[in-house]
Amino acid sequence: MITDIQDASATGACSVCDAKAIGINFGVPTCAPCKAFFRRNARRKELLRVSCCHDNGSCSMHDMKTVPHSNVRRCSSCRLRRCFSMGMKEELIRTEEENIRHRKLVDSNRQRREIFREKQQIRQSSLPQYMPTKSQLLDESDWLHISNIVSIYDTHCLQTYLDRRAITFNNRLSQSDDYFLLTYSTLLPMNIALSLFSFFRALPAARSLSHVNQSYLCKTNIRPLLFLNMFELNQLCFTEQCQERLDSSTWRAIFGPDLYERFVSVDKLSKRLLITDPIITRLWIVVLYFSSTLFCFYDPQSSLNIPTKKTPIRETQNAYVTLLWNYLVYRYGDPNAIRIYSNLTLVYLKMQPIGSEIGIRLRTRRELAVTNKVLNQLLTIDEHECEK
């Protein structure tokens, strides 16, 4: 059974005004009004000046237990200041370009759902009569697990990737173009791997495993998931054309011409087949991570310890497989759940041999030795980091 996760949103209180929270927004639990307020005003730095406050910086909104919500929201200056102090992040606000891209994804997803519904109606008469009802598929604990996985991914994987990407391009100003291009081939896969590593290390179900099992999963299963994670990050992050060209040239250099064409083909296939539902993609990544192994090559010089007891790994994976399947059936119906699950499997099976060949290139090509060494170092867990 999946380990219960104590999430901050379980308190039900908005971190800014103490009203009822609707979920994690821009990094912290907030209500709908504070979410909208921060989206509108986060970039209005003039509001942070003391002169904008009704009480010159000593606004009564700081006394959260005695002031009504309406008064708390009255002072925009103190309210925005409190948003930042509670950890709300400006960089998580979508730009106009990202909003346009997001709306297109939503429209595309809606059209696919309509097609699914039409096909479901045609096949409805052939469905077994003993199928469980929606209320039997997912209970309150299951929804809590799903909510926490989405939140942990946003907080650790997505935010780590955004932070590392910002550092990478900020440092470009102090480097020559040749040196930056040389190091970027290491920084790009490193940033994707580190973001995925941060996500798995934050999962309570992963931390509950022994040090041997944790180390084993990190070393064998993170690399094969880099491309699947990259697909999810690309859906979430707005990328300028100059960066897309830089990423493309980096992958072309790492893959080589023939392998790069196969990678582009699989990437197009994933965009066509994978439905843009973040819950599905993230649960699928978790299911694959808790596999006995996704990587069959073992370096004789590696210090990898192969677990003698893999039962905890299999039990954890079974729990996440059940959770993913129940969500698919709940959201899309049985026939469409089969179709979506089959597409997930097909895309990953297409990605896996490409990832295997890239692993060979990283281990055997001299110009990629630094990238391979950095990835090995990143995916190593110290025993003292594991919870007892």
Structure description:
The structure is a single chain. The chain has 388 residues and is mostly helical. It folds into two domains: 8-92, Erythroid Transcription Factor GATA-1, Chain A (2-Layer Sandwich), CATH 3.30.50; 135-385, Orthogonal Bundle (Retinoid X Receptor), CATH 1.10.565.10. It is built from 16 helices and two strands. The protein has a two-stranded antiparallel ribbon with strand order 1-2. β1 and β2 (28-30) form a beta hairpin. The longest helix has 32 residues, at 140-171. The radius of gyration is 23 Å and the shape is globular.
Number of helices: 16
Radius of gyration: 23 Å
CATH class descriptor of the largest domain = Mainly Alpha
CATH superfamily of the largest domain: Retinoid X Receptor
Question: What about the largest sheet?
Answer: 2 strands, antiparallel
List the helices and strands in order: EEHHHHHHHHHHHHHHHH
Summed up, what is this model?
The protein is an all-alpha fold and 388 residues long.
Topology at a glance:
Blueprint: E1 23-25, E2 28-30, H1 32-41, H2 69-72, H3 76-85, H4 96-123, H5 134-137, H6 140-171, H7 177-202, H8 204-207, H9 211-221, H10 226-236, H11 241-255, H12 257-273, H13 278-289, H14 311-332, H15 334-364, H16 369-378
Antiparallel strand pairs: 1-2
Feature tags:
single chain, 388 residues, mainly alpha, Erythroid Transcription Factor GATA-1, Chain A, Retinoid X Receptor, two-stranded antiparallel sheet, globular, disordered N terminus
